[in-house]
Amino acid sequence: FLAALLSLGFGIPLAYVLARGFAGQQFVESLVDLPLVVPHSVAGILILFGFGSGGAFPRISVLGTMLGMVLAMMFVAAPYAVNTTREAFEAIGDSLLYSSRIHGASQWQTFRRVTAPLAIGGMLTGWDVG
Fold this sequence. Notes:
Elements: H1 2-20, H2 25-37, H3 40-51, H4 66-90, H5 94-102, H6 107-129
Helix pairs in contact: 1-4, 1-6, 2-4, 4-6, 5-6
């Protein structure tokens, strides 16, 4: 539950930014999709190298803890949460967002009143898959 909640908490803003486009987007998308192509055993070995004794961060204890389990589950769930939410954001027509903005809504109001309600299905799918 915590992993899915945190994946969406970090994934919704990232998906929104990815749906709008920016310089270097392909690099960020490949980082998001990395857990899909890296075998889980390789990810476990990287965690051991990073957080095990003699690793890069030996003072942060994640092995066998709740934090470690949540991070491992987030590693697996995040691509699904980000990609389904990004696709939901991309499916919203620009004319709807433009009409909201032209009628005086701020960018946050447009997100809260137009974008988020229309993309809630993708957000819930990302939550469910994660």
